[in-house]
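re: ur question from yesterday

yeah so i grabbed the chain u mentioned. its 314 aa long if i counted rite. heres the sequnce exactly as i have it in my notes:
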Amino acid sequence: MTPILTITLNPALDISTSVHEVIPGPKLRCAVPQVDPGGGGINVSRAIAALGGSSHALVALGGTTGQRLASRVISEGILLDAFPGPGETRQSLAVTDSQTGQQYRFLLPGSEWVASQVEAVQERISEATMGGGFVVLSGSQPPGIPTDFARTLAMRLNGRARFVVDTSGPALRRLTEAPVSGIEVLRMDGEEAEDLAGHPLETRKDTADFAAALVARGGAKAVIVARGADGSVLVDAGKRLFSKAAKVPVKSKVGAGDSFVGGFVLALSQGDTTENALARGVAAASAAVMTEATELCHRADAERLIAECVVSEI
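ran it thru and got these structure tokens back, copy pasting raw so excuse formatting
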């Protein structure tokens, strides 16, 4: 298996619970909370572990919350490389209304980084990168991290690793406006793609055309766009592929994208084809929405659902 390094700059201690009804005013008595380590890269590593693989997680941590998060990452069998992040590691809260099934998610901001810390974490990532391995940068960026962080990291890695990026907001827009060589896979969800395109991507062909334009401009060797319950589109220089999502009961959409990335990268690290990796990623995402709160995919579910995640050409 090719080594996998995941990067989490803005981790969170995820707390999930439920109440009988979410209403303003009175004190709401919550159920016993579930506490999980969270953040894009951490969740990718958790999904990889759940699917039977292994990865190394480089995580920026601070304060007592960071210590709690670190212990939970280690308890899941993930190799942790803790980087001293600024301030106190943030927390997030997900509350489910038991009557309606609706989930309310509250995310606190991370502490602000300074330029010296940005340079230091870039250097740490470079040192931790295994030649020919995967580096996965996933999740939101905390305050102070420049929007061109992924571009700078791609240039620093200089092709030594297979760089996979799953980011959002200004950081994602910066990557698409100023492409840089060295990014193997760029993933985003449908809403992000439509925002970048400036118009709806109603059909799979529309999505594939948008992804193909990004590849042609040098945004990445391959672009993946998730189309929610429909499935995911992958486009590279020679393929325009779609994998259908499995039809499953949805309990929580939290972590579906990270489960996709975990399943997809794990498959590639094991030498699988792009087509099979896409199907395995979509199956992992489908499995993730079947679980409660911040729990991710289950291996048995993901393996069972692969047969439903049929890959076709667009």
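noticed a couple things. The chain has one domain: 39-83+114-313. also The mean pLDDT is 93.
anyway ttyl
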